[in-house]
Amino acid sequence: MDVKNAILLLEDETEAADMLANYLEMHDFEVLLARDGAQAVDIIHQKAEKIDLAILDIMVPKLNGFEICKKLREHPVLSSIPIIFLTAKDQESDEILGLEAGADDYISKPASLKLIEARVRSLLRRQPSRTSGWLHFGDIYLDPHNFEAIANNKRVELTHTEFNILKLLLSQSNKVYTRQEILEYISDDQKFVFDRTVDVHVKNLRIKLGKSGEYIKTYRGTGYGMNRDLAG
Q1: What span, in angstroms and rounded, lies between the C-alpha atoms of 104 and 101?
Q2: In what order do the strands lie in the sheet with 177-178?
Q3: How far is CA 96 from the centre of its chain?
Q4: pTM as predicted
Q5: Between the CA of residue 41 and those of 35, 60, 62, 65, 96, what are the distances in Å?
Q6: Which of 49, 85, 154, 177 could form a disulfide with 134 if both were Cys (CB 3.0 to 4.6 A apart)?
Q7: DSSP letter string over 161-188?
Q8: Exposed/middle/buried for 173, CB within 10 Å: 0-12, 13-18, 19+?
Q9: How far apart are the first and last CA of the chain?
């Protein structure tokens, strides 16, 4: 089954938002709908690994479309996704401002649903595939296929062993792994590894993750897992 492209849709007009969201969902997209800038920020924080494209109205409450565009362009996971401004601000100067803010396209309202869909598909065709499957917990993002780790909006250089420990913990973030399970995951048959070696690697991993290291919790008498109390 093909993975659906996910679209962040920022639109505060209820009827217009619901109509476009329903249309896109009927045409095989997943829509993450935000009705103001604060909701958009929450979606970016919680689901950055899913978002493939953003459609932003400019004049929305709390944080406007320009500000959300800036946050997307500064986000290490989302900095290169296509962004479309869909707005009633239809002067040439408005379009120039939108493109200068980092948008890839600018559509003036009113616009047909078919036109919006066509622009979305056109931008996604030019975009490199993002289906590698980021793992995510809090502000930690891990791309297991491209060996890339991000924490607190910064790329983190990890050793192969540290990366694999973090991948294991993130793969089932609601599970606590014993030291033995972690050892079996990070070592091969020819290499003897002491039990306490895991503690050393986890300590180094936490140091490299900085403040985000607190997401890795020691479950006394058991092992290690992600701190579910901090998952929000």
Answers
A1: 9
A2: 177-178, 223-226, 216-219
A3: 28
A4: 0.76
A5: 11, 13, 10, 11, 24
A6: 49
A7: HHHHHHHHHHHTTT-PEEHHHHHHHH--
A8: middle
A9: 29
Structure tokens at 163: 């990366």
**What pLDDT tens digit does each residue of the chain (232 aa) get?**
467 899 999 999 999 999 999 999 999 999 999 999 999 999 998 888 889 999 999 999 999 999 999 999 988 888 889 999 998 876 767 768 778 888 899 898 889 999 999 999 999 988 765 545 788 898 899 988 888 899 988 889 999 999 999 999 999 999 999 998 998 888 765 455 556 788 999 999 999 999 999 999 999 988 999 998 886 5
Domains, the chain, with CATH or none? 5-126 (3.40.50.2300), 135-230 (1.10.10.10)
Q: Which two tokens stand for residue 5?
A: 């492209």
